[in-house]
Amino acid sequence: MKLAALILSTALMPSIAFASSTSCESKKYHQYIDASLSWYESLVTLAVDKEPDLKEVGQWFLEGRKHHFELNRDAFDWYLANDKDKLALSLPVESWLNLTQQDVKALSEEQNSDLGKAAKLAFDDRQSKPHPKNYALRSAFAELLTHPGNIEKPLNAYNEKMTALTEMECQ
């Protein structure tokens, strides 16, 4: 009986180690997504604080960023579980997943899954006309980014999160 338990536990070790690594990689990628969304939210808040008439376009922009990043979150987990070759895990975390427009379109055609629904939202965003004030918002972002003091707090928060992610190792 003890021998059978030992053989079974030994046989399960690689799958337990794989699950642990997979869980770590997923957690790390999710933290990257959260840090990125937080950065964009801060950038929009700063732009709208300076120019309140950009509130609507700021919300439009954020909605698009959320669709993009939530698709990446879902797609990353799917590929991690089903097709790890699609992921570049030897690169920095922000480069682990690279979805082409064709990938997003193909994923969007599978509407029976949460991943397909997320892809449809992101694909539709990419195909839609830009908001009429999109250029004004991008100009406000450029103005903020040329004055580092204006973005110091959210940029430092983002950089700290990214540094922590860089130091996080998955085995």
From TrEMBL:
<keyword id="KW-0732">Signal</keyword>
<protein>
    <submittedName>
        <fullName>Uncharacterized protein</fullName>
    </submittedName>
</protein>
<feature type="signal peptide">
    <location>
        <begin position="1"/>
        <end position="19"/>
    </location>
</feature>
